[in-house]
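In response to reviewer comment 3 from the previous cycle, which asked for concrete evidence that the modeling workflow produces usable outputs, we include below a single protein chain processed end to end. The sequence was submitted unchanged, and the resulting structure tokens are shown without manual editing.
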Amino acid sequence: MIAEVGHFALILALGVALVQTILPMWGARRGDLSLMRVGSTAAQAQFLLLLMSFFALMTAYVTSDFSVQNVMQNSHSAKPMLYKISGVWGNHEGSMLLWVLILALFGSAVALFGRNLPPDLKANVLGVQGSISVAFLLFIVTTSNPFTRIHPVPFEGSGLNPILQDPALSFHPPFLYTGYVGFSIAFSFAVAALISGRIDPAWARWVRPWTLGAWMFLTLGIAMGSWWAYYELGWGGWWFWDPVENASFMPWLAGTALLHSAIVMEKRDALKVWTILLAILTFSLSLMGTFLVRSGVLTSVHAFAVDPARGVFILAIMVLFTGGALALFAGRAQILRQGGLFAPVSREGALILNNLLITTACAAVFVGTLYPLALEAVTGEKISVGPPFFNATFVPLMVPLLIAIPYGPFLAWKRGDILGTSQRLAMAALFTAFAIIAAYALSGPGPWLAPLALGLGVWVIMGAVSEIGFRAKAFRAPPDEVFRRLRNLPRSAYGTAIAHIGVGVMVVGIVGTTAWQTEKIVVMKPGEAEEIGGYNLKFEGVAPQQGPNYREEIGSFIVSEDGTELTHLHPSKRMYTAPPQATTEAGIHAAWSGDLYTVLGDDLKDGAFTVRLYFNPLVRLIWIGTIIMFLGGLISLSDRRLRVGAPKRARAPKAHAVPAE
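The workflow returned the following structure tokens.
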């Protein structure tokens, strides 16, 4: 019965989404306030119905109701409860239900918290958001129903893909989808602005918090996916330029450019064309990612193996919304008049340079990801575009971007002073030079460009610190005044600086592990030892162990440094029973200097095993940096001036009766 309730709620949500699409936009066109208000009610009702549908599917998973085909195909009664719950979105049908739930959540949030929005703009935003829901709910109901019953009911389910049975993968998709889908609000705001003709600094201020929220969650989602791939897949790396990884990275790049472009539009009433276009393209790239994952055109550990016909449906959705929005953009181009003029050397100019470099990098990733697919479709020839292409095109674009980042906040609006800014960054330059010299001294023979690249990360970090210090008049004013200024700085200033520090920390981690990683592949018998990265590893052997729904062979290594025992590592090889599949569990010893990473390989008989050993210097800084970036966004979002959007017009004070004398 619970499955039927969920299915009915899903169909009812489709009807409500139709109402949300038609009535408020019709009301905005006619100036009918009562029809416009229907959008808010419908958005919240749609969210509640989809929440009911989602919990119905989750209940079927938790209770192992194998009469539901989706549960039978992706769950097993022996699975731990965490993976029964995460199994809800560990498949195509359930993940799409989560997708539309998050879509409805954002629409409901606009309905609830968008009280400061002009009624016609709000109605159009909710109408566009509702139309996206209609398209995807039609897709689910007609091609991807998660509540289909089967008969006869099997005694047991097939189980969840073993590599998805991991804590990081339990939370990675919800965070990633929140980022993906969150950009739909920026898209809806852009289309609504084009419809209503309301494109001004207030619009940029309204759209910024929603874009920032989506960007934060996408940052966290990508980082969690990278962390999972690092410790679960047993390959010792953190990023492989996998096509589906790229599919999430491209909207992140476009969203980053959109955030910076919206700042210029809000402050200077400039870059209207660019900001609206980026809002459209960012969500379009999210739709493209959804298509790539579910179309069957890519072979990837992240992709859902589903009927390509479903991919055609999503492709049609992508063409409809992207093509329609771009056509509207072209038709309304005359209303996108630019604002104030500014010199090339200015804060506006720095933000434009930021945008150009980021969007060019996004274009390079786009070409590298889709070119093999286009070539195969046209000629039938299969090629692969791997890390060498992306490193050769993406990295050179990041170098000038990292050099320019500290300059932007120091430059004045309209016209800046590049010489004066360079003088203010003298301390940052000094720290950077020291870091480069120290890296050359400590690294010994190695990639000669690596210390310079590491210096770029330090340059970004110290540039952000210098900005806060300059705004607080550090070393130029009495301590009391410095602390007063620090207290009075807006949270958005701290958030921006912290996010830039996170970028610098991440760059240091990427350079460290990419340039100085050490790898060994050895054959070890119990009692033998190996040296790597200053550590000594003694192999003690392998022992079997039974898990809740798998068997595993666990290796044991004693790790010591300078004769002192530090820890034991236990890499393992698991064989799951439902479905039968082998996975690798790495043994990792984490330290600030780097990770000692061990992978247990094949059994060569006579007690000998193939063992892969890695030492990954500074690798943890990659994920620490992304967390710092997320926290920077969170602090910015907590700034009331950003969170509330455009201020309400103050009400006229009530007249008070004057007592008679």
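Residues 132 and 321 are 8 Å apart (CA to CA). We consider this sufficient to address the reviewer's concern, and the full set will be provided in the supplementary archive.
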